[in-house]
Amino acid sequence: MDISEFPSPSKTFQHFSQRSVKVDGWRGRMISVTACGKQVIMSRINLSQRIIIESGIYQRLNLTEIANKIGMSVTAVSNEIKLNRTPAKGSKPHGNDCRFANECEEKNLCCNFDCKRKCVWCFDFNCRELCNKYDNSLCSVLQKPPYVCNVCSRRRNCKCDRFYYMANQADAMSKKRYSKARKKTHANKDELKRIDSIVSPLIRKGQPISHIYAEHGDEIGVSPRTLYRYIDMGCLKVNNFDLRRKVSYKQRKKKREESEAFQNQKFRQTRTYLDFVKYMEKHPDINVVEMDTVKGCREQGKRMLTLLFRKTNLMLIMLMRDGKAATVVEQFDYLTSLVGVENFRKIFPVILTDNGSEFKYTQELEKTDQGERRTRLFYCDPQASWQKAQLEKNHEYIRYVLRKGKSFNPYTQDDMVLMMNHINSTRREKLGGKSPFEAEDRKEVKLLLKMLGLHAIPSDEVNLNPTLLTK
Fold first, then answer.
1. CA 418, CA 13: separation in Å to the nearest integer?
2. Cβ contacts of residue 26 below 8 Å, gap of 6+?
3. Which residues contact 253 (CB under 8 A, 6 or more apart)?
């Protein structure tokens, strides 16, 4: 990089100096008072002040005059120039960093008087080790204010290393240094070892960071954001591969317009998402349950029916022999037999689901064999999984234990109960650090949980890895 000439900055930037400056009594800290009377603490030099510094250098002002213009001390201006000046490498014969290398005429420093080559170009000996004139210090111009070559009359023909102060470059260098400094760990080795002993074993069990902080936040002693940064920097035994959320989400597909045939499907009539929104406007305090099914693999076989309570994130998982509509009705009848129609109506007053064929028996799902209403069913729009986003998100916990593509045929409902216990014992940030079990306080729901054999797991024993169900 050879910088020979720099024009003076535009005078339009000089208006930045038109602000009063006062000292607030604390050494080294200035307060800038703008035209509207607003006080700004000037703890660091900003771009506008750097433009004034560059302009002052080209105007050949001394550092005191520049410092007065920006309301900083002379030392602050001096350090700013030295720290954030831009280097320009000079001409170095054979990589020699001696100040006199370009005009050096020394020969035979190695005592080989038959050699006619200048020592600075020698490939056999390093003249810097043999010459007593070797000097790699900076040019004398750079050792006194303004410590840069911006206005030096010899800069065009100078062969030495040069430095220039440019406001934009200086601002970028300062921000980069500040950012780099903040990325360093502020904890010592013992502190990192203590944090690692708490966090790493729990992460390897598959526990989310939010769950770990709900239980051990005070012991860890750093914020979740700092912990993520320590893991990313490799300060702990776990790494980003152990964090399931360190992945990219697939791009959303463009929503397709509904066909006339789809709109006329009987099971959807008066039960669309728009009908759901209108119903919720009339009954804002009612509890909503989201429903879906989860496949194990492409082959025919067992499927999961999942039901999630929006307010508490409590999820129920019922293992079905297949994914047919009649089998879903059987699960509703089974839950009704456990708690009764009245309690079922209180637990599942409104259910929102997708347009899968397994949910097309609307009348049978909403009413019992005796014709008693037990729930109200509504359907999302096609290609709009975000309308029941909480359940879609909660399915991640299932995939932590049972990977995608794995058949559910070897598993039983008892395995589902074990998995539900661990999933619903996971503390959630949106619940204020509580688990779904702790957030749910309705007696009807607690009765259902008891009938299904569900109970809370101690926080440190929560396991969301495939090791939970090995079959």
1. 69
2. none
3. 383
The full length of the chain comes to 471
Other CB atoms within 10 A of residue 111 CB: 7
**What crossing angle do the helices spanning 47-58 and 74-84 adopt, rounded to 10°?**
90
Q: Which residue has 């980003």 as its token pair?
A: 240
Separation in Å, CA 21 to CA 33, 51, 71, 187:
6, 17, 6, 38
Q: Given its phi and psi angles, is residue 319 left (phi above 0), alpha (psi -120 to 50 degrees) or beta?
A: beta
Q: How far apart, in whole angstroms, are the C-alpha atoms of residue 363 and residue 194?
A: 58
- Dump strand ranges (E) for 175-311: 288-295, 303-309
**Rounded to an integer, what distance in angstroms lies between the CA atom of residue 95 and that of residue 98?**
9
What percent of the chain has a predicted confidence (pLDDT) above 70?
83
> pTM for the whole thing?
0.58
Query: Per residue in 414-459, pLDDT tens?
Result: 999 999 999 999 999 999 999 999 999 999 999 999 999 999 999 9
**Tokens standing for residue 432:** 């204020």
Pairing of strands 350-353, 288-295: parallel
What are the tokens at 199?
């966090």
| pLDDT mean over 197-201 | 93
Answer whether 51's CB lies under 8 Å from 143's CB. no
